[in-house]
Amino acid sequence: MITEQELVQNNVLHNQSTVVAELIKSGTIPDESLYGQWYEVMEWWLVTPYLARLLKEECEVVIEDCGCYWWGRQSTGQAIKMDDVISMIVRSFE
Predict the structure, then answer these.
(1) What is the CA 72 to chain-centroid distance, rounded?
(2) Chain mean position to CA 87
């Protein structure tokens, strides 16, 4: 069984909040508000395609563009492994 720590360690690559903000500002990629409802994204993280798919299944904001997968994390201030969505994904493997 995979742990939250292993899932994050192997699939969350880099914080790219500044990069994504600039891409949205320039119109290169769409703003997260275009995903059907309003989201308050606190951080943007580059993730693997595998984790992007799992996050989408949990209705998380994921932008697939420019050959990248960015997760719009809706929390901040704690380790990613502690996010509810990460725990839900890990529990789904049981």
Answers:
(1) 5
(2) 14
Please count the CA atoms within 13 angstroms of the CA of 74 that sit on its side-chain side: 14
Burial-class residue 38 by CB neighbours within 10 Å (0-12, 13-18, 19+): exposed
Instruction: Give the whole-angstrom CA distance, residue 21 versus residue 55.
Output: 20
Q: d(Cα 90, Cα 21) in Å, to the nearest integer?
A: 29
Reported pTM: 0.89
**Predicted confidence pLDDT, tens digits, the chain (94 residues):** 899 999 999 999 999 999 998 998 898 887 765 555 556 889 999 999 999 999 999 989 899 998 999 999 999 999 999 999 999 999 998 8
